[in-house]
Amino acid sequence: MRSDGRSAGRGRPLRAGLIGLGAMGRNHARVLAALAGVELVGVVDPAGGTAPGGVPVLAELNDLLALGVDYAVVACPTAQHESVGLRLAVAGVPALIEKPLAHDARAARRLVDAFRGQVAGVGHVERYNPALQQLRARLASGEIGEVYQVSTRRQGPFPRRIADVGVVKDLATHDIDLTGWITGQSYASVAARTVRKSGRPYEDMVAAVGTLADGTMVSHLVNWLSPQKERYVAVTGERGCLVADTLTADLTLQVNGAVATEWDTVRTFRGVTEGDVIRYAFPKREPLMSEHEQFREAVAGRPAETVALTEGLHTVEVAESVLAAAGRQSLLGVTVR
C-alpha cells in the first residue's frame, strides 16, 4: 500500500467533492486543495463563488456526482445535512459530514442507518487538536489517577454565519463530544439553563452540568455573547489537574503537591497542597488537516481514526437532552413547566 494517500491499486489521487462554501466550507476547500493524494474536483454551492485552484463551483449535488467522486465533505448548513447525506449514501459515496451530524436525533439516526456498511464520519475536529490528543493519552496512562471532573468553557462573539441552530447544537456539541472521547465514557444525566439575548429564535448561552456513566462530574459553559474568545478544558483528578487551551493547543499539568502549606489562612482555602506546574511541549499540527488525513486513509481502506456516525448520533442526543433539561426550570424544589 502507498503511504502518500493515493487510492490503493489505482495509482491516482482520490477524487473529492465538497458541499458548501461558507466559512467552514472554505476551510475544508483550502485543506482539500493541499491534501496529499487527494484532488478536489468540484464544490457545490447554489450561491456560487470561487474555490481554490479554479475548481468548478456547481449549483447542484447531481452535477458533482456526475463528475465521479471517491468521497465528499458535507459542510452545508446543519439543516441540510440529512438530505445531502442520504443522497450520498444512496449513491455509494463515502461522506465526511460536519458536526453536528444532523439537526435532530431522528435525522441523525436515519443517516446512521443509510451509511451502514459504508465509510462515513463526523467532523468533530477537536478530537484532532494536539492538546486534547495529549490530554487523552495522559488520562489513559493514569497520570492524574481517578478522574473527578471535566469542566469546559467555550465562549466568544456570535458567528453570523450560523442561522439554523443555537449555541447548544453548534458550539456545545464540540464539548459534549470531546468530553466523552477523552474519558471514554458516555453521558448518564444532564441539567441545564439557557438564555436568549441576541434576538434570535435560538439560545445563545448555555450552562450545563451532568454526570458520565462512571460518575465523573461534567460542566459546560458555552455562549455567543462574550467578546472574549475562550476554549478551555480542565480535567481534575486525584493527583492533579490537566488544563488544555485548544486555541493555542497548550496543555498544562497542575500537580497536587507533597509539601504542606504552613500559612494557616491560605491552607484553609485549599483542598489539596499546591505542587508543580508543567506545560508540555509536543508537535502541533492543524487539527483540520489531521482530520482530513485520517478520513482520506479510511476511504482508501487503510487504518484510520475517524468519528463514527454512531458517536455523532450520541452527541446530538446529549445536545437534545441539554435543551430538554433547560426547558424544565425548578424553583425551591417546584418544577415549573
UniProtKB/TrEMBL annotation:
<feature type="domain" description="Gfo/Idh/MocA-like oxidoreductase N-terminal">
    <location>
        <begin position="15"/>
        <end position="117"/>
    </location>
</feature>
<feature type="domain" description="GFO/IDH/MocA-like oxidoreductase">
    <location>
        <begin position="133"/>
        <end position="242"/>
    </location>
</feature>
<dbReference type="InterPro" id="IPR000683">
    <property type="entry name" value="Gfo/Idh/MocA-like_OxRdtase_N"/>
</dbReference>
<dbReference type="Pfam" id="PF22725">
    <property type="entry name" value="GFO_IDH_MocA_C3"/>
</dbReference>
<dbReference type="GO" id="GO:0000166">
    <property type="term" value="F:nucleotide binding"/>
</dbReference>
<dbReference type="InterPro" id="IPR055170">
    <property type="entry name" value="GFO_IDH_MocA-like_dom"/>
</dbReference>
<dbReference type="InterPro" id="IPR051450">
    <property type="entry name" value="Gfo/Idh/MocA_Oxidoreductases"/>
</dbReference>
<protein>
    <submittedName>
        <fullName>Putative dehydrogenase</fullName>
    </submittedName>
</protein>
<dbReference type="InterPro" id="IPR036291">
    <property type="entry name" value="NAD(P)-bd_dom_sf"/>
</dbReference>
<dbReference type="Pfam" id="PF01408">
    <property type="entry name" value="GFO_IDH_MocA"/>
</dbReference>
